[in-house]
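Question (not urgent): is this output format expected?
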Amino acid sequence: MDDKESSQEVPLPVRVIGIIFNLRKPTSEGDPDDLYEEYDSQSTVDALASEIESFGFKTTLFEQNEELFRKLTTNRSDFVFNIAEGTGVGRGRESQIPCLLESLGIPYSGSDPVSLGISLDKYLTNLVLKHEGVPVPFVALFRDEADLDKADHLFQRDGQIYIAKPRWEGSSKGVFKDSLCRNAEELRKNVLRIFERYKQPAVAEAFLPGVEITVGVIGNGSDARAIGMMKITERKPSNDGIFLYSLEHKRDWQEKILYEGPEAIDKNVRKQAASVAIDAFRALELRDVARIDMRMDESGILRVIDINPLPGLSPYYSDLPILYSLSGGNYHDLVSKILEAAFKRYRLFHEGA
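Got this back:
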């Protein structure tokens, strides 16, 4: 074994952890009001920094802007905790920071650029998961107006409902109460709204009528494990009994949404949810942490409807900390587990540990 190989086997110490993020800001006139929905508040960044410092690390905060490259090279961190969603509206935006960090040789938390790029794209995610045998709903792609002719063919079965979604958005951006489509005319209207508002293709996803469950996963490869889950329902069910976890719900979750921990989920469903989440995590080769959203179809099969490889980490309102708390954990342990998974992957350690 040569010297280079030997050095890679020696665990490296971490003293300073950088946190890279995008701060939520007001939208400009003419922009969608949910343009920065995925970005974090200063309170989230501060809470995460405080928690990391409680383990004995020093932290340095880096907002993603034109000064980021200079700051990273002049004030180098031993490790970066990445919560940045990226800038712009392209489907590769979540890959921007991991690409930069890899080019600088800085280890970081979370998934790599390829997995992040695929996971943000709902259509590619569906294709990969289906190929890997992970249950997913039927999805139709609308790349441009020429595809609108597909709409009529999707409603050949009575009672069929679709959800129109932007192809590469997260945090329920572009998913509203009226995104449910019961006929071709409604679907075409929603697809055109996505083209105009989000400047990207749209997908029509078959609506699944059963329970919605989200599962937190931590680890890597064969060590990936479910750390908790919760059931998501509406506090005041609609007259037709159809529930869509929309942007309006997420913005007013304390009034409109009921989150229930594992005890509210049937034992067999819990087992199925954990298995599906881990299978999806491994199929997309995600790293360290993710949140997997799923809904149950008419036959009782849980199908993955969204992948969140950069799950929100606000201790106040983000789904992952909430589900982990409902599953018996706390924010301190959650941050610790994410760091532990990433450090183990890179063979890093904290001298004060």
